[in-house]
């Protein structure tokens, strides 16, 4: 009685295949891994960014360092430019080239030439560049290829008075960039190492933080796994604000489950009671007939027995039908259906019963009316309404069946019977309730309750109206077709 | 140390170089120890005396018995030209250039004529002994002051200051009895003179006193030691320590002083020209030169001094292998230096 297909609480919930309703796509994944992965991805990106930016900065710093030394060297040489006996001479200072050898073991070239490009001393083929330094204090720097190597070059200018007038002297000093590259690489590698360290540390901290953040979820899991299958009390776990909706949703779901279960149990209890009554009557009738002796059984008592058996049979059928319809309405695949075709099929099914009472159906069906739903459940609902119309309508009459298309397709079944008084119109949908006029008619009190259940599952409505001047109009109104939203309110 | 004719060096930077043929002073052939055709032939050109190199070449050949070696002895300028012009006497390029002219060797490396050589043996060298992994020092030879020990009753002056004050106080005793390198003639003398001028101002004062005392100018350490041994001079300034040591070991009355203020160390270097067609064996020869085995052979050779192991004597200053050495190769700088030197020394006579 208590285990209604709920998972056994002894196993950990996570290892079980997810239920079709909750699991969705089915593939499981770890929130912790996904979070960690995304964080590490971001961190790696930052580490790469750090490496690149430090490399750029280090490159610029190394450039600046080399430029400073080259510039100092060129200016030191420029200061040694003199005029002796009308000629420009340069007393190359030892420090000017020696200082270039302090930072590394790079090749060094120099060239001193006058304004006309006449080489005074040095490497005659070393290009001095096209741009002239603006002042004597600020050499120009550029990078070029020379003797198979990339060289950083500084050109300084010195203006000097010779016998033939003012003369410009250009001092060019160049140095290869091996130490520069090595320095840049080593700085950038240090940055990369720091970045890598941060990455590892961040990963570790993120792992711990995620584990702590997910702890309430684990507690909820443990609390649910540990509870007995008939325990429907709300979860009392303390949860952070972000997890609270989950706890509330679980509690709400458990509450609905409890209500559904209660309803089912009530239904079963009442069904058992209802079936027991006609069966007891049948048994009593049979015993009376038996006591009266063989052959003494009157036609009257036999008719009563048949009536009691009919009643039991119909009740049982309808109970099973309701259970079936309730299941189908919730679970079955929706398909596109013609409301007119459904009406025709239902009418055909009840043709015999109608003929017995001399009733015929007047059908006014619009074939354009299409709805989405479960064929079997809907047929059952329409059949129940037709059955009621046949049963409660006067004999030798007609029942009008109308199907109209439009934004909200509907089917309307109208009889000329006693109708349902306005105050009873909600009541008749309750299980085992029958209208005040149906007392002497054979019926279980389940028909309209099935109709309502089917319509709720299809997000439609059932309405009972007065058929002027006499009778009842039962109207099934469907929501517009093509709306494929899963029916949430049907289950609530 | 042989004389380097420096007039050629001046020509080096002023005239088209191909005009003059490279002059080889001496050729030694070392056939492979193994029978049959040698695996390869190693062409070595160097300033080092062929006799001094003999032991080293033989020891290397013992390690590589299938290599034949040819040693060409030439002046430092000709070694420089042999590398830049990629020419040998027998028409094949040199595989190894050994020179005591550190400045010219540095210029060869700086101008891209030397080949990269990286090995476990060269990785162990101290910083001062290599540059750009293309030039490797394998001897370390001090510039010392040699005295005629017969002329000093007590210990001779131990530093340049002491020498200076002695010369000033007893001018008559030393007039015409001092000798040093003529930097115009000797490449090594020029290197020592320029490095001295960088070390201290005392050098110029010393040179002025040398000029006042009509110092004799010489091409080579050997010549100065000859004069010292013969009693013609009393003081020989900046002679190679290993040469002086060899003379003293042979019984000459020579006192050797490593100046206390500072003692310059000349580093003999080897490099592999980029034009070499046998860089593998050339690299092995360099590795051998700086290996403990090679250094032992050098230590046993009277006219060479091993580079390793290093002492930690603070007064010993190796001439630094680096771009600074290019400065005094500059023609204009050279003229300026020599003219200053001449005005200090020669013009006072």
Can you describe this structure?
The complex is a heterodimer of chains A (492) and B (349). Chain A is an alpha+beta fold. Among the domains of chain A are: 52-186, Beta-Lactamase (2-Layer Sandwich); 332-477, 2-Layer Sandwich (Heat Shock Protein 90), CATH 3.30.565.10. Helices cover 47% and strands 18% of the residues of chain A. Chain A has 11 helices and 14 strands. Chain A has helices at 20-23, 31-78, 94-98, 178-213, 215-226, 244-291, 299-331, 339-349, 351-356, 375-392, 447-457; strands at residues 81-84, 87-90, 108-114, 119-122, 140-146, 149-162, 165-176, 335-338, 360-365, 370-373, 398-404, 410-414, 461-466, 472-477. In chain A, strand 6 (149-162) and strand 7 form a beta hairpin. In chain A, helix 6 packs antiparallel against helix 7, helix 8 (339-349) packs across helix 10 and helix 10 (375-392) packs antiparallel against helix 11. Chain B is of the alpha/beta class and 349 residues long. Chain B has helices spanning 6-14, 50-63, 76-84, 102-110, 120-123, 160-169, 171-174, 187-199, 202-212, 221-229, 241-249, 279-290, 292-300, 331-344; strands at 26-30, 40-46, 67-73, 96-99, 130-131, 135-148, 178-181, 216-218, 235-240, 254-257, 263-271, 316-318. In chain B, strands 1, 2, 3, 4, 5, 6, 7, 8, 9, 10, 11 and 12 form a 12-stranded mixed sheet that branches. In chain B, strand 2 (40-46), helix 2 (50-63) and strand 3 (67-73) form a beta-alpha-beta unit. The relative contact order of chain B is 0.18. Classes of the chains: A alpha+beta (492), B alpha/beta (349). Chains A and B meet through helix 3 and strand 4 of A and helix 14 of B.
């Amino acid at each position: 009685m208590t285990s209604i297909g709920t998972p056994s609480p002894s196993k950990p919930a996570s290892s079980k295949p997810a239920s079709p309703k909750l699991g969705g796509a089915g593939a499981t994944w770890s929130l912790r891994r996904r979070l960690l992965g995304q964080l590490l991805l971001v961190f790696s990106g930052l580490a790469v960014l750090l490496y690149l930016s430090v490399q750029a900065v280090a490159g610029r710093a190394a450039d600046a360092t080399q430029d400073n030394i080259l510039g100092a060297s060129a200016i030191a040489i420029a200061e040694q430019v003199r005029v002796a006996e009308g000629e420009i001479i340069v007393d190359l200072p030892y420090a000017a080239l020696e200082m270039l050898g302090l930072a590394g073991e790079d090749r060094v070239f120099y060239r001193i030439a006058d304004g006309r490009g006449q080489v005074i001393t040095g490497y005659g083929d070393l290009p001095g560049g096209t741009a002239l330094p603006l002042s004597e204090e600020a050499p120009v720097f550029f990078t070029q290829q020379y003797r198979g190597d990339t060289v950083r070059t500084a050109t300084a200018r010195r203006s000097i008075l010779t016998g033939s007038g003012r003369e410009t002297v250009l001092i060019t000093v160049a140095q290869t960039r091996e130490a520069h590259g090595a320095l840049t690489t080593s700085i950038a590698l240090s940055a990369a190492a720091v970045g890598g360290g941060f990455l590892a540390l961040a990963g570790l901290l993120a792992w711990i933080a995620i584990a702590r953040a997910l702890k309430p979820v684990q507690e909820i899991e443990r609390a649910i796994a540990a509870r007995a299958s008939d325990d429907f009390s709300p979860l009392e776990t303390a949860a952070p604000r972000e997890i609270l909706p989950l706890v509330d949703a679980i509690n709400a779901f458990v509450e609905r489950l409890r209500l559904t279960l209660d309803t089912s149990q009530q239904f079963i209890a009442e069904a058992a009671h209802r079936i027991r009554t006609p069966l007891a009557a049948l048994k009593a009738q049979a015993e009376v007939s038996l006591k009266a002796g063989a052959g003494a059984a009157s036609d009257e008592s036999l008719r009563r027995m048949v009536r009691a058996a009919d009643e039991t049979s119909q009740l049982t059928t309808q109970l099973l039908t309701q259970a079936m319809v309730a299941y189908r309405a919730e679970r079955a695949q929706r398909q596109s259906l013609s409301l007119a075709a459904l009406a025709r099929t239902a009418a055909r099914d009840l043709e015999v019963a109608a003929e017995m009472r001399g009733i015929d159906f007047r059908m006014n069906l619009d074939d354009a009316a299409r709805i989405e739903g479960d064929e079997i459940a809907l047929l059952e609902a329409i059949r129940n309404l037709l059955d009621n119309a046949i049963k409660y309508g006067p004999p030798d009459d007609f029942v009008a069946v109308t199907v109209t298309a439009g934004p909200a397709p509907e089917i309307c079944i109208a009889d000329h019977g006693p109708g349902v008084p306005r105050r009873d119109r909600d009541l008749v949908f309750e299980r085992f309730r029958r209208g005040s006029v149906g007392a002497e008619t054979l019926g279980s009190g389940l028909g309209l309750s099935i109709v309502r259940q089917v319509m709720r599952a299809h997000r439609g409505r059932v309405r009972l109206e007065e058929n002027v001047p006499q009778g009842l109009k039962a109207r099934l109104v469907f929501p517009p077709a093509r709306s494929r939203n899963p029916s949430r309110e049907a289950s609530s | 140390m042989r004389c380097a004719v420096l007039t050629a060096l001046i020509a080096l930077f002023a005239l088209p170089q191909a005009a003059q043929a490279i002059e080889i002073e001496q050729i030694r052939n070392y056939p492979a120890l193994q029978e049959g055709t040698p695996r390869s032939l190693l062409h070595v050109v160097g300033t080092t005396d062929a006799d001094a190199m003999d032991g080293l070449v033989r020891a290397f050949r013992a390690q590589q018995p299938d290599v034949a070696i040819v040693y060409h002895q030439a002046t430092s300028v000709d070694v420089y030209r042999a590398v830049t012009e990629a020419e040998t006497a027998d028409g094949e390029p040199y595989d190894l250039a050994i020179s005591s002219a550190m400045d010219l060797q540095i210029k060869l490396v700086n101008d891209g004529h030397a080949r990269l050589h990286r090995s476990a043996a060269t990785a162990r060298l101290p910083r001062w002994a290599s540059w750009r992994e293309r030039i490797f020092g394998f001897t370390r030879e001090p510039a010392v002051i040699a005295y005629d020990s017969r002329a000093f009753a007590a210990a001779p002056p131990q530093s340049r200051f002491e020498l200076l004050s002695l010369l000033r106080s007893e001018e008559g005793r030393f007039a015409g009895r001092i000798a040093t390198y003529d930097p115009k003639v000797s490449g090594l003398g020029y290197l020592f003179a320029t490095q001295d001028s960088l070390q201290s101002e005392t050098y110029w004062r010393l040179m002025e006193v040398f000029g006042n005392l009509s110092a004799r100018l010489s091409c080579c350490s050997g010549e100065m030691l000859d004069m010292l041994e013969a009693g013609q001079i009393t003081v020989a300034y900046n002679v190679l320590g290993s040469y002086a040591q060899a003379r003293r070991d042979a019984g000459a009355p020579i006192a050797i002083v490593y100046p206390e203020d500072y003692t310059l160390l000349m580093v003999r270097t080897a490099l592999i020209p980029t034009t070499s067609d046998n860089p593998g064996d050339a690299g092995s020869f360099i590795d051998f030169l700086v290996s403990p085995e090679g250094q032992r052979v050098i230590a046993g050779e009277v006219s060479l001094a091993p580079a390793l192991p290093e002492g930690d004597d603070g007064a010993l200053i190796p001439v630094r292998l680096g771009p600074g050495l290019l400065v005094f190769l500059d023609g204009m700088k050279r003229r300026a230096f020599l003219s200053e030197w001449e005005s200090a020394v020669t013009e006072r006579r």
